[in-house]
Amino acid sequence: MKRKSVSVLLILLLVMTLFVPAAANPAEVSAAGSFQIRTTMPTLSDPNAKFYYSDLNRFWKAGRLAPDFKYYKGIMDDGRTGGYIWGNCTWWAYSRASEVLGEPLNPNLRGNAGEWWDCNKKGKFYPYGSTPKAGSIVVYKTHVAFVEQVVGNQIYVSESGWQTKTYGPSSTDDFFFHYGIPWSSNGTPKGYIYITDKTPSSISQKKANYSVRVSVSQLRMRSGPGTGYSNMGYVKKGTHKLKAVTTDGEWGQLASNGYWIALEYTTKVTGKSSNNKLKSLGVSGYSISPAFKSSRTSYSLTVPSNVNSVTIKALKAHSKATVSGTGSVKLSTGLNSKPVTVKAENGKVKTYTLGITRSKAQKVRVSVSELNMRTGPGTRYKSKGKLKKGIYRITRTKNGWGKLKKNGYWIKLSYTTKVRTKAYKARVKVSELNMRTGPGIKYKSKGILKKGTYRITKRKNGWGKLKKNGYWIKLSYTKRV
Prior knowledge:
Elements: H1 2-19, E1 29-30, H2 58-62, E2 71-75, E3 81-87, H3 89-101, H4 116-123, E4 128-129, E5 137-139, E6 144-151, E7 154-159, E8 163-165, E9 178-180, E10 191-193, E11 205-222, E12 231-246, E13 251-254, E14 260-262, E15 266-269, E16 278-283, E17 298-303, E18 309-316, E19 322-324, E20 327-330, E21 334-343, E22 349-358, E23 362-374, E24 383-398, E25 401-404, E26 410-412, E27 416-419, E28 424-436, E29 445-460, E30 463-466, E31 472-474, E32 478-480
Parallel strand pairs: 17-22
Antiparallel strand pairs: 1-6, 2-3, 3-8, 4-10, 5-6, 5-10, 6-7, 7-9, 11-12, 11-15, 12-13, 13-14, 16-18, 18-20, 19-21, 21-22, 23-24, 23-27, 24-25, 25-26, 28-29, 28-32, 29-30, 30-31
């Protein structure tokens, strides 16, 4: 029994010797001195979690390509209909490489795992070869992993794999992860991408003369167009002018200091906007015709005769545009043309026009002994009593109905006749009589009217309106002819 126990212990020690790299002789271990070997999945609170669980990681940002705790409908990549993602090799390799570099991996490495090798080889983004090195990405036919260390001729990797389930993971501990000797199912490697080597390949460039807006709080600057170049600090969030870009559009050279930044985390700043359109246009309490469209510039509406002002409202389509002509505007009887002007950020102007007609008040004589009054222009509206025979002022008409000035109710105009104001002649009795712009001394004087006979077209408050020029005179200084 004792001999059997000793044999079991010897077997366990042998297994530990074969599979635990930390027990190896330090002289036989090759590891990049600039990073710590990762043997576990990082938690959400890990200092470097941003490289795994944020939009800095293009696989996380894309959705459906990282274990983001979300449920996805439809057909998954493994043929499952709907489910949660528990792991993905490309997400892991991109995350881990970014963590080691201290910034996102070159964004060109974003396709299927097996495509990374030819993509890097063609683009010359990082050095590559067939010799395993710690801190490199090992690429297989359908898989990628990160080489954490090399013990003798044996590599030890951190890796994940595509896996989905019908229920979601409860924490990052549930994510599909493996550290150790690569899975045997991976097959023979295509090769290794040496992301930590400081020998970037030359990349063609072209001149640029535009600005970009940096969208992250701190973006690393490099001495050249690639992650293999020296770190030159950070550029802050904001707008920065470029003087050159790489022909693949991945890197831009800052005009201010000559350093390079990854353009994936920027947006191009275009020229000043020429958008001078309105998003909406209207008049409070009324409907314009036709219905508003940003491409149409002319509209009309009619208001009652007793409405002497309206409020114009407009909403600009672009935040940097300016609008004028809105707010409260005064109305005269008849047609009032009210322009609303939109000035774009670049100074381009567009004018919308509202043709607002203020109805002319009219007098009507009710020809029946009792006429129904209603709350609106039609028999379907509620009756509000009877109107007796007499002369009444109408402020608005619609579909054969008239709105009474005295109470706002509506009557059927077919039971009325229009009262026409008769013009007459008047003789001015004084040698000189003041003319004014309105029926009262508060109105502006418009010269002198000499003795003579003149036609009066309208009377109001003891004043008469001259047919010859539209000015008003005090009728107490005249005699009707």
